[in-house]
Amino acid sequence: MTLIVRDLQLQPYEPIWQAMHAFTDSRTADTIDEIWLV
Description:
- The protein has one helix spanning 13-26, and strands spanning 3-7, 33-37.
- The protein is an alpha+beta fold and 38 residues long.
- The longest helix has 14 residues, at 13-26.
């Protein structure tokens, strides 16, 4: 299993939340899973 971990540190919530939604909306079956740490 391949997984990408993004350690984004302390950031404003809303822009990260929007980026997560954009990432999810643009995923394909071949997109590697990601965990975003904020």
